[in-house]
Amino acid sequence: MVQNRTLRRLDQAQLDQAVRKHEMFRNARVGGARANLSFCDLSGLDLSGRDLAHADFVGASLRGADLSGARLDCASFFVADLRQANFDGASLIKADLRGACLRGAILVGANLFEADLRDGSLAEKDRSGHLHMVQIESSPADADGADLSGANLTNARMSGIMAVHTDFSDAVMRGCKLVRATMRGANFTGSNLEGADLSGADLRGACLRGAVLTGATMVMADLTDADVEEALTDKPVGRVVAELGRSLEDLLSDHMTWVGSSGAQGAMLDLSGFDLRHAPSLAHMCLTMLRAAGATLYGLDLSGVQLQAAVLDRADLRGAKLTDGDLRGISLRNAKLNNADLRNVNLRPLVFDEQRSRPADLSGAKLRYADLSGACLRSVNLGNADLSFANLRGCDLARTDLTGAKLFGAKLERRALNEGVILDGVAGLKT
After folding, report:
1. Among candidates 416, 339, 325, 410, which has minimal Cα distance to 378?
2. For a Cys-Cys bond, which of 99, 168, 272, 307 suits 293, CB 3.0-4.6 Å?
3. Alpha-carbon distances of 202 from 29, 163, 170, 178, 220, rounded to whole Å
4. d(C-alpha 143, C-alpha 171), whole Å
5. CA-to-CA separations, 204 to 121, 146, 189, 421, in angstroms, rounded
6. Phi, psi dihedral angles at 256 (to 5 degrees)
7. pLDDT per position as a tens digit, 192-241
8. Alpha-carbon distance 366 to 385, whole Å?
9. Does an H or E element contain 15, and which?
10. What is the pTM of this model?
11. What is the CA radius of gyration of the chain?
């Protein structure tokens, strides 16, 4: 037997009081109490930026509520109504979202690491001890039309979810469980599904253009009319390292000799068009003036690398780690750097003498959700680059050329744009 459950309506003042006590509870202060908001009607209320980790929202209605930037780790949203709720940038690590209705919800850039979004239904005992199903006007595990672009869904459990026409573009979904999920017409453009389990998933008409599918299990998945153009799979992209004729270690040694001798000895290394995903670590290597146009370096550890004056136009560096790298004068035109770790990289011009210098060129590069915090981007050419949702906090942007660049949702300090930055035709910059 199915019974409807009446929700208790709270106003903003009552909710604020419960949240304050919960935050006191989280900080082990006297008078604190864990927020029990189960079966409460919180629709349209404001919880943005609040700490509600481990709170109880079982069966609650948060339809149209603002939870942007909120900390909701390990919170329980079991069979909750989350339609049109705003979780923009919220942290939902290990949250219980089983049976929750996320139709039309906004989860752009949200962190759902190891969250549980599987089907779920609620049962209660009546006074006679009999179980009955509880109906809370929502569809189990329903994420139809939700916006999860750029969300972190690593190891999330989403088997059986309904996610028709849902936006997963640029989402990180490594190891995600999507067994028998219904995702017809969903948008996975540029998403990372490395190691995901899509067995029996309904992906008819889905867009997987440019998605990462390495190590993904797709047994019995229905890809009828799906767009998988430029998807990165286990199949090599271009040439493989074995075709070099010699070991990569020996070729790198020759290249370093060539650099150290100003070209008198050794030989310059050209890896253009090669798939280097299974190459040895290149971290802290001297790759000055390397040529690797169109190469695939997805997910590689290149931290501390020296790539001064290197040419990596059109290279695939999505998810690569380039922290603390010396990239002065590099050419990365039209390169893919989505979700790359570029913290503290040096991209200032490479100075040859008082008269000659070479600025870094990242024109047309895709840097969506890349982390560039603390990087030196002085005088870099970022014309027509896509920096949407990138982290640019603490960057040196003096005289940087951002002509025609996209900065939708980018994180940056406005004062950094006061030192001669070229902003002609920039899109998405908040005024």
Report:
1. 416
2. 272
3. 49, 10, 20, 10, 9
4. 15
5. 27, 18, 15, 45
6. -65, -35
7. 999 999 999 999 999 999 999 999 999 999 999 999 999 999 999 989 98
8. 6
9. helix 12-26
10. 0.84
11. 25
